[in-house]
Structures are given as C-alpha cells and as structure tokens.
Amino acid sequence: MPTNSFGAASKLRAGNIDYRIFRLNSLEEKGVGNVASLPFTTKVLLENLLRQEDGRRVTAADIEYVAHAAAGSTSKEISFMPARVLLQDFTGVPCVVDMAAMRDALAAMGADARLANPLLPVDLVIDHSVQVDRYGTADAFEFNALLEFQRNRERYILLRWGQTAFQNFRVVPPDTGIVHQVNLEYLASAVFRRKAAQGWEAYPDTVVGTDSHTTMVNGLGVVGWGVGGIEAEACMLGQPISMLLPPVVGFKLHGRMPEGCTATDLVLTITQILRKKGVVGKFVEFYGQGLSALSVADRATVGNMAPEYGATVGFFPIDAEALEYLRFTNRDASLVELVEAYAKEQGLFRTDQTPDPVYLENVDLDLATITPSMAGPKRPQDRVNLGDVKKNFNDAFGGAHNPVEINMNSHPSTIDNGSIVIAAITSCTNTSNPSVMLAAGLLAKKAVERGLKPKPWVKTSLAPGSKVVSDYYREAGLMPYLEALNFHLVGYGCTTCIGNSGPLPDAVAAAVQTENLAVVAVLSGNRNFEGRINALVKANYLASPPLVVAYALAGRIDIDLTSEPLGEDSAGGPVYLRDIWPSDEEVRKTVRASIRSEMFQHEYEKAFEGDSNWNSLPVPSGDIYVWDARSTYIKRPPYFDNMVDPEKAIQDLHAMRVLALLGDSITTDHISPAGSIAKDSPAGRYLIEQGVQPRDFNSYGARRGNHEVMVRGTLANVRLRNQLAPGTEGGWTRHLPDGEQMFIYDASMRYQEEGIPLVILAGKEYGSGSSRDWAAKGVLLLGVKAVIAESFERIHRTNLVGMGVLPLQFIEGESARSLKLTGHELFSVRGVREALEGSRRARVLAVDEAGKETTFDVHVRVDTPPEVEYYRFGGILPYVLRQIAGAPVGA
Question: Which of 282, 400, 792, 802 is close enough to 230 for a disulfide, judged by CB 3.0 to 4.6 Å?
Fold first, then answer.
C-alpha cells in the first residue's frame, strides 16, 4: 500500500463513479516543487512515484527530488511501474517460452509454478509473422495468411496455451493488425482505470513494450517506450523498471506544413534534427501551437520514430484533438469523460494557451519549412530532399550502369543498378495515418486514369496496420486503383519493414546475384538498415505511401521525381509526379467522407477471437507447458540451468578472446538473428540436421522460441563487417591464436570447448535499432562475458545487463582504434566488484601476441542498484525466479 506521505490520495468524480487518484497539486500545497511548470512526461513519472510510494523502492525523498528536478537529471535513479505491458509475437513468444521455463524451474524448486504469472495486464498482438510470399494477385492475402499458419503452428499453439494458463494475458490473433496501430486504435486508454479492493482507481495509461516503436502511442498522450523482452518479463512479474530520471528536451512546433507535404516528411525532418542534436536517453516532448495543426495520426507518426531519432519517448500531451480521437475510434464515452476530467485535474491537459513547461533544452521547428523528403539509403536519420534522391543514390553506389535482360512473366525486361525491386506500403509508422494512406490511393487513381502501370520487376505490396484501413479504402472506392497497380492486400502485419518481404521473383534474384546489382527497396517503414529489408537489396529508402506508389511506377531510384516524368500516358505524353499528386484538400475531403467511427467498432469488437485458422488450433491444458522434443520452433531455454551463486558471481574477467571487432552504428539488426535463414549458415545446417527442408525454414523471427536456431544466427547478418575477418561480410571471424577463418558460431563453440571466455569490441551507438532481446541473449549463449564499446543504445545496454553480460564503455576520446587494439589480444577486466559497489570504473588489460600490454580505464555501464543485483544473480530472469520462489541467496 502507498504510504501517502504528501496526502496526495484523493477522489475524482467522472460520470457517476468516484475514482481514487493521487493529486499532483498536493505537492505544491505542501511547498514541494513547482509542479505546474514541469514537463508533462515528468508529471506522469511523478504521479507514478506518488502512487507507488512504499518507503523502500519509492521514498518521499525520491518524490521531492523529482518535483524539484524541473526537466530532469541523469543523476537520480527512480523506480517506474507501468500500467501495462505490450508484446508482439517475435519478442512475445520468447517471453512466453521463458515464463513457461520459469514454471518448470519453480516446480523443480518445490514452489508453486503458478507464481510465474503476469501481475500486470499484458497484451500480445501477433503481427510479425506474415511474409509477402504472394503479391500482386487477388488471393495474396488468403495465400499468405494460410502459409503463415502452416509455418507458425507450433508457436501459435504455445500462445494459445498462454491464453489459458496465464492470468492478465490476452492475445490478439494473426491477421488483425500491427501491434502499435492496434494499441493506438483500441488498446490504449490515455487514462487507465481499474477496480481495486478499495474501489475504482484512475491513473495515467503508461506502457512498456517489447518493440521499440511502442512510442507510437505517445501521439495519444500515453507515456510508453520500448524495452527488451527480458525487462518486460520482469515487469510482468511485478518488478518495477529502475531508470535514471530522463532529461526532457522540448521540441516546439509552430506554423503549418506546406501544400503537398505529409507527416512522413515531417517525421524524417525531426529524425534528422534530433539525431544530429543527440537525444539518446532523453525524453522529447512536443509543444507549441503547431500541435493544433497535427492530427493524432500525424503525432503518432512522429512518436513512432522516437527510436530512429534516439529518444526514449516522443510525447504529445492530451488535448482536445486526443479526446476527439478517442471518441472517433469508438472508445467508451465514460472513458473519454474520465480522460478529460483526470487530465485537467492533474495539469496534464494542453491547450494553445497552456504556458510552456520548463525544459532542459529546447528545439524549434517551423512546420512551414518542411519539404518532400525520403531517407536512405541505409539509415532513417539520413533525410534526403526528394529532388536529391537520384544524386544521393549515385553518390552512394557509384552511378555505374550494368543493364541485365530478364524475363518477367514471358515479357522481356531490363534491370540495372538503381532498379527498384520492392515497393511496399507497410509499417505502423504510416499505415496508421489515414491522410497518407488515402493520398496513396488517390495517387493510384490518377495514375490509372492516365494509363500508368508499375514496372514488372517491382515487387509491390500493401500491408495495412489494421482492418479499418481496408474499410476506408473500400468506402472511398480506391482499392480497385491500388490493385490495378498491383498493390493488392498481402496481410495485416509488419511484413517488409521487419524483413518479411519474402523472396524476390526468381528472374530478378538471379540477375541481382549474378551481376551483384545495387537494387533498391522503397517502403513506408521506419527502418532501412543494411540487410534488413531483403538480403539481396543494398539500398533502402523510407518514403510516404504515395511516394511508394510513384516509385513503383518509375521503377528506378535514380530519377528526379521533381523534374523527370514517371512515365507516359496512354497517348504517349509524359506524366509527372505533380500531375497525379493529390491536393491537400482532396485528401481532407476523402478522409472526411470515407472514415466512420462504426468501422472501429466493427473491426475491434471481436479483436481477441480470431478466425477459423486460429480457433481450430489445439489448446494444451495445464499449468506446466509440455515441451515437444521434436519441435524446431519451441525449446526450453537454458537460462535457469546452473544458476550462479550471487555471493560469488561478481568477479574479474580474465583472458578473454575477441569474438568480433566492430565499427560504429552496429544495430541490433546486425547482432540479432533476423530475416531469412540461409541453408549453408550454421542455423540452416542445424535445421537440415533436424529434418527441416530449406523451403520450410521460415524466418529467424519466427524461430525466436528456439535458442538453438537463434544462437547460430547471432552476429550473422549478411552486412556485418567484422574487422577480425577483413574482406568478408556476414557472420565470419577468426579463431585465435591460430587465425583460422570460420563462422562466428563455430568459433564460439570451439572457444567454449577450450574454456575461453569472449569479449566484443565496438564503436559508437552499439545496439541501436529495435529492442531485440536476442541481441543480448544470443551473445550470452555465444559465450560473451563483456562488450566494450564507445557508446551503447539505451535498450540494448539494459538487455546486456539483464542477461548477465557486462557492458563496458571506453572513456571519452578513447576507442579500440585510438588504443591501437587489433582484436588479437587477450583481454582481462580488473576491479569489477569495486566498480559495481560504487566507482563505476574498471581497468582493462590487453596483452597482444608479442606480450605487449595495453591498459585503459572503462566505465562499467551497470547504471542502477537494481541492475547491479541483476548482474550479481547472473541476469534478471534468475533474479526474479529467486525472488518469487522465496529462495535464499545461493540456493
């Protein structure tokens, strides 16, 4: 029970219900801080502390500090308990697998297995498993959906078991929508209400999710961000998140966007600005009168890409527009009434007259300066003006031509460097936004009317974020035009944006591989890292949905759409992008005429029921999961085997070999297994040994519940460049000291047989990108004890600690290069215990092959006392297991 030191517990009446709330202004009444001037996000954290105050994890001193901290300080650790947890299936399946394994471990310890049960509400949305195997046909959706169930049957049976075995756990079945769009349109409430023993309670709707783009719901006034699967599991089991109070950067928006610009152009501009500024580990909060010119869908587009600009959140406060969105998406009227009453009572409601909060730093953007933009060819922060895309590609890939004749459906065609082979309307970032989606439909209509057709070598796809999109496309009469350009519905899921683009047509793939062509994908997604979209595609550009359609018509990226024609009309005349681009008024009129509140009611009233494919799956019974030894999808993980004695766990590290020497911007896509599985890779060889044919490999994401597959795919991205194996791309290294070149997995197994621990050396922004827990789990299972990097992305650093891998950071100005480290040295880390007891500094000794010693200091990036405890127990999962089992230390 909260101790309520500040008398904050109070009543709020909304509708005919009295809710128990914790009033923020009670602090000012007692002379504690100027709460009214705090950023909105800091107020939400402060309310969380008021409500969770227990004298142990949250003290009165913690609350006073935050109330006085204005825009935040990284020097103070706070405890945060979200209202709920959000999972998608790629990261959610491992969570369920780990929970099932924890139940096994509890039973083995003589404890009640049911103690491993979510204590917070948990929603899992299955959206990451559908692939674009068939496209450009009327039956593409049905074909891909059926194939999805065939491939993922074992995974879905596990989730069906979880539905019945766990309390507080709901599953949104496949083919419903993308997790973040379902969250925005249905699951999120802006203010959370629950029936407790003493009556109804109300507090801000806060969420952590196992997808970094959980931030999309920031557009609705919900504080939420992505965490690793390991951290999410701890929250599910009642463990709060320990975090440093984040600094808050205010981003002021004013003016209006020019005619012809979209929310995609806006978010790519913001991403470029904030990446340049540097906001990793910070909250970004948008304010100013420009917010009133942005719909919730536009705001959600900006919030979605917070991981791309590096922020923990990209937050928009609750205001009249948010209330209208809740009403329009068919939220209960009593909820909307509560949201308005609560937000206004707590100073969490924004109007154009609201005084600007006090921020640590401020950024300013005039919306009138936004221009049509794309981002690429390799990073989302690399914004390019539309007119400069041609030059951008040529500068990156040389601009040389190498035309290759191919046969597409009995028609000769020619592809070349710069040919667009994938054009995908995909990803929650944009498919949640009716304006850009309907703009794509209107552009398609004008293109068809002018006689334009997509190029035959372009793999086109339409993967909306929810079924509501299909409803309003049909209502607007635009679906036939999209289909005429081969943008048929392929599925309701993330598809291309997460690497589920499916295979390229055989003729295209053969030409690309034979001639090593630099071909291109254009997608309305949020990620375009190397090797992510398709292993054969070297250049990837992010674009708004209408631009995706336009580039499918052009068929090439090395074209200036601002001055060169897309193609010829039926009379042979040139057709320019400006000829078919819909006006803003056309888009607004179509939005008003085609989207109705009833669509949201219809599509979400049976959100948890699923179709016949889902409901025909067998549902295992019992509190303990029965593992199928023959399964190649689901295996009991080893995290609870041979648990360490916490009293002896913190030791110095000795004589480690380097498994990989890596550069800057190594993303979790580079580290974690993702995309397709090559038959000649360690994972492919393993599956073949288990009797799985290559056609049935599925993707790494689908096999995240099998650690044997995943460890073999860790650090195996086709674009990974390990400096220990110069001249190679992919999962290669050299076993030392003999220097034999081999797969990273094979080298790891040899090192483990030899009893040699491992270390990874890296540059800046190690672990940026998606919150992939397997980027930490995989390196642990490879035998890696520590990672030494110039800097870490927030989520991945937390995940490393959560798996018992020590993150070490070079002192500012030092790096592997400046210290002339080659990766052939033996590394030892001294002073680990002292570092974790408070100094946060350790000493590294590197001894090269000639016996020369190099010593340097590192920051030990175990940032908070709870993280020290997690590391001491060998990771967060063993720690939680011992806590819920009541096992004594060392048991």
Answer: 802
